[in-house]
Specification:
alpha+beta, Nucleotidyltransferase, domain 5, 3 domains, 5-stranded mixed sheet, 10 strands, binds zinc ion
Length: 460
């Protein structure tokens, strides 16, 4: 059996051309059912080639005469233009046309009609597919995935994918800085913003191998349970508070609306909160506090009979301090931890070393951040966020899963920053093909298939 797939070109309801795209041979008894992946890709590529060439011929013909005064335009020459599409690389003859005298251009100036239509030699959809998959997989994996399912062997490369991510990342960065002229889509009110940061290995030279890339990730929680992410590399933005401001703007938070920011004790978050003119309120997240108490409890396991200064078992006393902090009585907890700390400070034995340090760290953390401690119990019962765990999971989602340390990847500050922009935009469901194709309008009066403007297409 032989299956032939043809394309018919129909112009003004009149069939003008009939071309064979593909022919498949099938042995009915032995061959598998349907088209193979390779045959499907070949068919798509052939159809796309035919489609693109037909369109480009039309566009070239459309430029045979001036759009304004209908004077005949002269051709300077032809060259080949490569157009990368989601269904393969297509090479088409591209005319270079001299401007009309009415266009006010210098004498002899020329333009290429096709470069206006596909300015980067790539369709927005192919760029979108590349950056979307590169946001989730390594550049090489994204490239091989696309090559596996689409006929894009010649159209994409690993370095090309990397370059597209940078270009789109920069574009998203510019778009986030630009105050949006479009009204924000209606979003439910923000209940809290949780912020945390993650670390990546820097790709700097080996002698400075200790450098890391600090990626900050935040997540806004909306009433109703939906969330939205933002991310940046610390030294790639002029100000972290401006960044927070932009993000809240894009979430539809009014300038006088009160928003709670949940974060750990890192000073950079305090700077971000202090720097904005918004009435933000920062609270210390419960997760990090609970972890600190947990480390004391683990160290105290070695001394089950040890007594606290007030005569209670040390284990129970630590529990009591945690209970006080949970119920918003951090002042009392800090005082009682200080007493335990002072007793342990007097002991010189090495076995108390770990216990002493975990108590000291917890006491220091709570007393340093006492302004940001709240009644966590009450917040919890009101279903308000108390933990930056939502931000930790965001760090995992944005940073670790793609740029993970375990994958031995190394990053530059800028590379990580731009990829993070693409990744959060996609995770927020807001990544779209860029609208960079200038809409091409054919002249009001189409002048038919003018011969010199069509000859290379007919020959090809
Ligand atoms: Zn003209």
């Amino acid at each position: 059996m032989r299956i032939i797939i043809e394309a018919h070109l129909v112009d003004d309801r009149e069939q003008t051309e009939r071309v064979q795209l593909c022919a498949f041979e099938r042995e009915l008894t032995t061959d598998p059912i349907g088209m193979s992946l390779a045959e499907g890709k070949a068919l798509l590529a052939a159809a796309q080639r035919y489609f693109v060439r037909g369109q480009c011929a039309g566009i070239s013909c459309g430029h045979a005469r001036c759009e304004v005064c209908d004077a005949k335009l002269s051709l300077k020459g032809w060259h080949q233009r490569k157009i990368r599409t989601a269904f393969g690389l297509v090479q088409v003859p591209s005319p270079r046309v001299r401007y009309c005298s009415c266009a006010g251009q210098p004498d002899g100036a020329t333009f290429s009609p096709l470069s206006k239509v596909v300015p980067h030699g790539m369709t927005p959809e192919l760029e979108y597919l590349q950056v979307k998959w590169a946001a989730h997989l390594s550049y090489a994996d994204a490239c091989s995935l696309l090559r596996e399912v689409l006929p894009v062997e010649q159209a994409i490369s690993v370095t090309g994918v990397k370059r597209r991510v940078r270009v789109v990342g920069q574009e998203l960065e510019l778009a986030s800085e630009r105050p949006s002229s479009n009204p924000q889509p209606q979003m439910p009110p923000v209940t809290a913003v949780a912020v945390d940061s993650g670390w990546l290995k820097h790709c700097c030279p080996p002698r400075r191998h200790n450098r890391n890339v600090n990626v900050v990730v935040g997540r806004a929680c909306f009433q109703g349970g939906t969330t939205r992410l933002y991310s940046y590399v610390h030294n790639q933005v002029p100000s972290s508070s401006a960044r927070l401001d932009q993000f809240l703007d894009s979430c539809g938070v009014g300038h006088d609306e009160r928003v709670t920011v949940v974060s750990d004790g890192a000073g950079e978050f305090q700077k971000a909160v202090d720097g904005t003119a918004r009435p933000l309120c920062r609270i210390l997240d419960w997760f990090h506090i609970a972890m600190k108490f947990r480390s004391i409890e683990l160290c105290a396991l070695k001394f089950p009979r040890m007594l606290a200064p007030n005569g209670r078992l040390l284990r129970d006393e630590v529990q009591a301090c945690k209970w006080l902090t949970w119920h918003g009585k951090a002042g009392a907890a800090v005082a009682r931890l200080k007493e335990i700390h002072d007793v342990l400070d007097g002991k010189d034995e090495l076995e108390y070393f770990n216990l002493y340090w975990s108590v000291r760290r917890t006491w220091g953390y709570l007393s340093l951040n006492d302004r940001y401690l709240v009644n966590y119990c009450r917040r919890h019962h009101r279903n308000l966020p108390i933990s930056s765990a939502i931000a930790e999971s965001a760090v995992n989602q944005v940073v670790s899963l793609r740029m993970a340390k375990k994958r031995q990847m190394r990053w530059s500050d800028q590379g990580a920053h731009l990829l993070a922009q693409v990744r959060v935009t996609d995770l927020n469901g807001e990544l779209r093909p860029r609208a960079f194709a200038v809409p091409w309008r054919p002249p009001a009066k189409l002048n038919g298939w003018d011969d010199p403007f069509l000859r290379p297409y007919l020959q090809a």
